[in-house]
Design goal:
Radius of gyration: 17 Å
Number of domains: 1
Mean pLDDT: 92
Number of strands: 9
CATH architecture: 3-Layer(aba) Sandwich
């Protein structure tokens, strides 16, 4: 059977993040990608200049169309900017008994633009965190979701991950890309994993990190769709993203935070 993954996320008109990054990632990792678009954004490597939310009922129609025909092995969820959007996505996934859900709680773009309303954060906690196999916040997102200050080290990252478990998360991957140091450290925590899983990669000196969070979460979903267990999928995704960042500057795209090189293994 062909491995299939569905991304439910916003569209990035410059092609570096969101739906476009997810589909590139799926393709690079040998997975057939389907999509349900939650919002249209006007953006480029320098910032977001507009957001047009897709009506919730049409988001549900897209999701229904995919599940009614395709054997979806994993689902990646990205930008959901409004409470009504979050509710309809959660209802749709429950209705279709979706499996292997990877939730990337997108809140702020790499450029700094806010991508979610304040009242949507509570809906995200209530509706989607308990549905996901793994939640993948970066350091600022983890701080918002836990009501804490930005984690300064691995111990604080682990504490915030465990706090998200108390909110109903099954597994939590806190990403350390916003930290400093020679290595970029991510921490994976889950009730059934035992001790925390530490994932490290050399930190690359580059501004071309646009879409890195989208790419990591969709790479995890790709691994799950291919039958990897969660730890294997996360490790493989970390390796893929590290390579895409390390090769990002070979692309000459835009004048701000450039995109990752999703096809670094092929071009």
């Amino acid at each position: 059977m062909t491995a299939i993954a569905l991304t439910i996320a916003g569209s990035d008109s410059s092609g570096g993040a969101g739906i476009q990054a997810d589909l590139k990632t799926f393709a690079a990792l040998g997975v057939y990608g389907a999509s349900a678009i939650t919002a249209l954004t006007a953006q480029n490597t320098r910032g977001v200049t507009g957001i047009h939310d897709v009506p919730p009922d049409f988001i549900a129609t897209q999701i229904d169309a995919v599940f009614d025909d395709l054997d979806v092995g994993a689902v990646k969820i990205g930008m959901l900017s409004l409470p009504a959007t979050i509710t309809v996505v959660a209802d749709s996934l429950r209705r279709h008994k979706a499996k292997n859900i990877v939730l990337d709680p997108v809140m702020v773009a790499t450029s700094g633009a806010k991508l979610i309303s304040d009242d949507a954060i509570g809906a995200l906690r209530r509706e989607l965190i308990p549905l996901a196999l793994v939640v993948t916040p970066n350091l600022p997102e983890a701080a918002v979701l836990t009501g804490a200050s930005l984690a300064r080290n691995e111990d604080e990252m682990t504490i915030q991950a465990r706090e998200l478990l108390t909110q109903g998360a099954t597994n939590v991957l806190i990403k350390g890309g916003h930290a400093t140091g020679a290595e970029s450290i991510d921490v994976l925590i889950g009730d059934k994993l035992g001790t925390a899983v530490r994932l490290a990669a050399p930190r690359v000196a580059t501004q071309s990190t646009h879409g890195s969070g989208c790419t990591l979460s969709s790479a995890i979903a790709a691994g799950l769709a291919k039958g990897l267990d969660l730890v294997e999928a996360v490790r493989a995704a970390k390796t893929y993203v590290a390579g895409a960042i390390a090769n990002a500057d070979t692309l000459k795209v835009g004048h701000g935070h450039g995109p990752l090189h999703h096809f670094h293994a092929f071009w």
